[in-house]
Design a protein that fits this description.
alpha+beta, 60s Ribosomal Protein L30, Chain: A, 7 helices, 14% strand
């Protein structure tokens, strides 16, 4: 039965595939015939992939702003809880901006965004020595294009687990 359900899910190629594959151990996935590149063995407690799956790794900002929205605070609360569960993990908070504005302006804005995330996590009880910040300004867009949709995806703070 397990082989049949994995086969059906794999054949469908839907979002349910990730949930089914992710709920099995790597050994069970191999036994079920799941290709190696689909095995989510990185979902180990305390791993970067578990962080992304349970806490989410990014928050978004309004145009020319670095204050945290309520949605951002909710995400950062989950990040803080995860970091408290794994006190040996360190993070790098990246600040990003959209393509509009000068390089210098966007580097400064990215820095303010990264520090807004850092300061919130510290206020939630995460040791400041575990957090490094870096600004990329507009240099590493998540989405290319000169549209509001692309710009909204690029105005972000991203937490990377070391």
């Amino acid at each position: 039965m397990l082989f049949a359900s994995v086969g059906v899910v794999a054949a469908c190629g839907t979002a349910d595939e990730s949930a089914t594959v992710g709920s099995q151990s790597a050994t069970d996935q191999l036994a079920a015939g799941v290709p190696n590149d689909r095995i989510e063995s990185e979902q180990i407690p305390g791993s970067p992939n578990e962080f992304v799956a349970t806490a989410a790794d990014r928050v978004f900002f309004a145009v020319d702003r670095y204050d945290l929205t309520s949605a951002a605070r909710t995400t950062l609360e989950r990040q803080a809880q995860w970091l408290q569960r794994y006190p040996s993990r360190r993070i790098v908070v990246q600040g990003h901006a959209d393509e509009r504005g000068t390089r210098e302006y966007n580097l400064a804005l990215g820095d303010r965004r990264a520090n807004a995330v850092r300061n919130f996590l510290v206020a939630m009880g995460v040791d400041s020595n575990r957090i490094t910040t870096v600004s990329f300004g507009k240099e590493q867009p998540a989405e290319l294009g000169a549209t509001e949709t692309a710009w909204a995806q690029n105005r972000r703070g991203v937490t990377i687990v070391d």
